[in-house]
Amino acid sequence: MKRKIALVLAAAMTVAMLPMNAMANSTNTLSKSNTTLSDDEVLLTNIDDRSIDVVFSNYDSSSEKVNDNVISAASAITLQVRPTSEVKQGDSIILKVENGKFNENLCESAPFIFRTEKTKTTYDALVADGRDPVDVLKEYVGGENSRKLPYGFKYINANEIEVLLYPINDDKVNQNNSDVTQGTPYYDIALPIVTDGSEEGAVTVSIDDNDSTISATSHTVATVTDSDGSTTASVVSSDVNTTSDEIYSVPDITIKEDLAGTFDGQTIKVKLNGNYEWSDNSDGDIVAGVNCNKFVSVGKYSSDNKNGWKIDKRTLEFTLPDKSESPFVTSKTSSIIIKGFKAEAKDDDTYGDINVTISGDSGITTQTIKVGERQDYGFMLKALEEPTTIFAGRTPFDADADTDDFETAEFEFGETTPGTWLTGRKLEFSVPEGVKIVGYEITKTKYMDKFSTGKIVDDGTTLRFDSISSQSMNINENESSYFDIKLTLSTSIDFSGDVTVSVSGAGLDADTLSDLVVAKVVTPVTVEAATTKSNIGYKAVETADIKITENTYGALEDGKSVEITLDDTYSADLAFDDADTDIKVDGELEVKTFKVKNGKISFTIDSESYSAPSTITITGVAVGTTRSIPYGSYSITVGGDAIVNNYQENVDQKSTITAEEGNLPTKKNGSFEDDYEQYADFDLFEEDGFEFKNYLEVVTDTTTLDGVVEVTIGEKSIKMDGKTVDMDVAAYIQTSSNSTMVPLRFVTLALGVDQANANDADNSSKIAWDANTKTATIFYAAGSGQKIIQFQAGSATMTVDGVGITMDNGVVAEIVDGRMFVPFRALGQALGVPVSWDAETRTAIYNGQLAKSAVDTVDVEETEATTVAEETTEATTAEATTEAATEAE
């Protein structure tokens, strides 16, 4: 397999290895260039006519060949040895090569000729001259202002050669040696290496000092590869244009070798896509790019130019000259340029990207690139940067606000083809509901000199430009004009997610312009809490902790306040209780002035977070309700100016376009106000905070107890729907709370539960007693589901379905004479039944309203019985029912 060798890319490589002694005696570098050589080619020195020529015995200057090996001066690689101390007469070094060969013929038949303007001589002649070396250097080297020192070759074997070094004294080796070599002298040693038989991998040359003062080093000079090479095609992106014309001038296409030598003799095809063909009217050619030697251009195909370019509809084809003509610099990667060609649409309905696919023989990389686009008359809307992030509920008009935090990504709107603007066109940019435009900035215009003043309409959701036309805006009708713009926004605290911009106006096809995402809105904080269920009429129901987490550090700003309120629709019947509520902060943020007052929780940010989001947890929260509040779910609102500061704010419309012919002023000192022209007002948002739904659920089980229950103070009985049932102890009034207390026996009678069922693992009604904690647990299974109510002796808190509820008036369950007593009113509230008090008879009543309903019903039945004169048994029943109802009332 024929291999190629790619020389290492660099201008010079410093020493890879130095001797172990403390001071190096020379500095050795590698002068390299990138090339590709076939396996019989030579790595040879760059020829300098003023100092040293390497001339082989059969050197042919006209063909630059020797033994079929190319000796192009451009394919040079030399080892530069800079002595730092004296080089004595007879000193030499040994060069060793790995994964390459030294060519014996090149070494032994190549005298080195050193020349001045008048004299030429060989290295051997210099040595045999017998003159003082300094005089020789002055005459043959110094006179030409050169720093290259004479040297010679002695072939040892394919892996080793000896390099004979012309002597130089200590005082002539430094950079200040102006009388001889005009600077630091060095041996520029050609490397007559061939790669015949080399394996893939590095070709290295090492220096054996051979007891001279030259340092021993090692260098990688090339890399052998089996690759046939590769290429890269490209166009300048700014030259890729959009047209509506049928004929399009294709921009210059550059094809560059990735591996030198790839172009040699290659046939390359450039094929257009789809319904496009190369125009016969093209005046194009394939011309020289960089690192071209004798190659100028391909020229058009003819009988005298068989390799010239030719067109076959979609395909442009040409052949490059091979290396026998020395068209390219073989030591470097070359490039060619395809220029001046035109693409033609086959019909009027051909639109879209204009692409070309470059392909060819082995080594030419198949690649497709876009060179243009054909579009019908129309407009484009595109983003110029990634969407920005904006906090919901904030306003840029706040004194501490940075207006950049409210700007969208910059986006562009303009023609897809020249001449699209119509006279008197109206143009509108709209944003979603919950977002309002409070300002805008035209950052750039292209192919238009002026711009109309925009106006924010539709309550801030639309930015409108009226009477846009090519005349009023001085639009260049030969170019696709456009402008770049960014909006300044404020959003509702309830809005989150993508902010899209849609564009509309006369002559615009909405189907062809997709909405553009220009910003993403996030809430400053996330609120978390569980839902607490409660019956109505409790002063202080323990509710879930409220956790407020910043969505980024610094979201809650210094000096601003947070306020948490319950549903304000029922503010008179629903409020936070100031029981044992507290605040805890996890993170860098600090708060102050925490309080629960007037049914609200509030605190102030004393120091904002600066590197990570913080979390605030409100613990020990309690909520009180009256018996007037309806059953249902109630939310909390987390507000305050730390959360929302665009609540019902009046906005003065502003824009960076002034009224004076649409000039584009610049901001001063970064201020939002400095360059904005005011011309209209509108309101921002009604939402005053972030709403967390279903924080409290006021519930009742309407069928848990549907009868009338009466207990009279001091009597050892109760009445249930008018029937008297005995108890073993009497109810009494607890002195400290002025509350009616009833024994557990009352509970079993009133609710129809059986204490004997206490250990049954089912959903039946029962009462359990825990002697250790002195806690009575009532399981009541009537209604929609089992209700669990707990009273603990000595505690003012009742637990209903797992929720602790502070009982009114400080009443506590208690044990008297070994019997457990519980508050009559608290038990009724837990059951969700109305509780009333008859002060005259000192009687506490559940469902007292049912007694009157029973009387009204019986009166109707009695009237009907009398009127119809039904049977005597019916009349008797009515009388009995009336008697019972009267007694209950």
Task: Characterise the protein shown here.
The strands form 16 sheets. This protein has an eight-stranded antiparallel beta sheet, with helices on one face. Strands 4-1-19-18-10-15-14 form a seven-stranded antiparallel beta sheet. The chain has a six-stranded mixed beta sheet with strand order 21-32-31-24-28-27, with no helix packed on it. It is 8% helix and 39% strand. The N and C termini lie far apart (117 Å). It has 889 residues and is mainly beta. The longest helix is centred in the last third of the chain and has 21 residues. Helix 6 packs antiparallel against helix 7. The chain is elongated, with a radius of gyration of 49 Å.
Helix % is under 10%
Count of extended strands: 71
Assembly type: single chain
Residue runs with pLDDT of under 50 for 5 or more positions:
1-24, 31-76, 653-680, 853-889
Sheet with the most strands: spatial strand order: 48-53-45-67-66-65-64-63
